[in-house]
Amino acid sequence: MTAAADLDDTKHRTDRVPGRYHSSQRALHWLVVVLVVFQFLTGGQMEAAFLLRDVQPLNLAGPVWVHGTIGLSILAAMLGRAGLRARYGAPPPPSDEPRPVQWLSRGTHYAFYVVLILMPIAGLVAVLSGNPTIAWAHGVTAYVLLALAALHVAGALWHAFKRDGVATRMLGRDPAEKDMARTD
Predict the structure, then answer these.
(1) 60 within some domain
(2) Residue 182 lies in a domain
(3) Measured in Å, how far apart are the chain's first and last C-alpha atoms?
(4) What is the pLDDT of residue 172?
(5) Phi and psi of 77, rounded to 5°?
(6) Less CB within 10 Å around the terminal CB: N or C of the chain?
(7) Which has the closest alpha carbon to 53: 138, 128, 143, 139?
(8) How many folded domains does the chain comprise?
(9) 8 Å CB contact between 161 and 132
(10) Looking at residue 91, what DSSP letter applies?
(11) Which residue segment(s) compose the domain that 163 sits in?
(12) What does the DSSP assignment read for 15-49?
């Protein structure tokens, strides 16, 4: 089975709690959100340190270490999310959702996986090699990530406005999961 097949939304193996992501998927989703927001808030320090590397050696302590450690944590969390996605699948889209919207949603989610796995790797390679092209690609990818996040939040807000249940798939704990937590 290929990685793409493992992430296929058509498997819908969340029938244990229909229409919701598994609690571990939700936990990792919100962990990644917090870590990514932190990276955006502190990323400027990394950029400044990298730009000054010709004047002063890149100090791998302080902001560089923190940014790198959080980046590798994002990588680990995303690999965990991919494994959980392969195990539990994803809830099906609403039956009345137009096909193009389903494709956009699926494409956005796959793009998140690609960006949030490759970006930390590129950052690590940029720091270890000192390659400015890789550092530039890592930085530009942050804008791609920002665009994906804006699209994702807009979609979540749209679904919250429609009240079709999609926006709540990553929120809270479903009472039905309390009983299932004992069987996991």
Answers:
(1) yes
(2) no
(3) 24
(4) 66
(5) -65, -40
(6) N
(7) 128
(8) 1
(9) no
(10) P
(11) 3-173
(12) TTSTTS--HHHHHHHHHHHHHHHHHHHHHHHHHHH
Radius of gyration of the chain (CA): 19
Give one DSSP letter per residue of 138-183, joined into a string.
HHHHHHHHHHHHHHHHHHHHHHHHHTSSGGGTTSS--HHHHHHTTT
State pTM to two decimals.
Answer: 0.77
**């990588």: which residue's tokens?**
75
CB 61 within 8 A of CB 54: no
> What pLDDT shows up at residue 106?
93
Joined together, the tokens standing for residue 145 give 């990530």
The helix (run of H) or strand (run of E) holding residue 103 is helix 99-129
162 pLDDT tier (thresholds 50, 70, 90): confident
Give the C-alpha separation, 102 to 158, whole Å.
13
Q: Are 22 and 68 in contact (CB under 8 A)?
A: no
Enter the tokens of residue 110.
């796959």
Question: Tell me, what amino acid is at 73?
Answer: S
- Is there a domain that residue 179 lies in? no
Domain assignment present for residue 93? The answer is yes
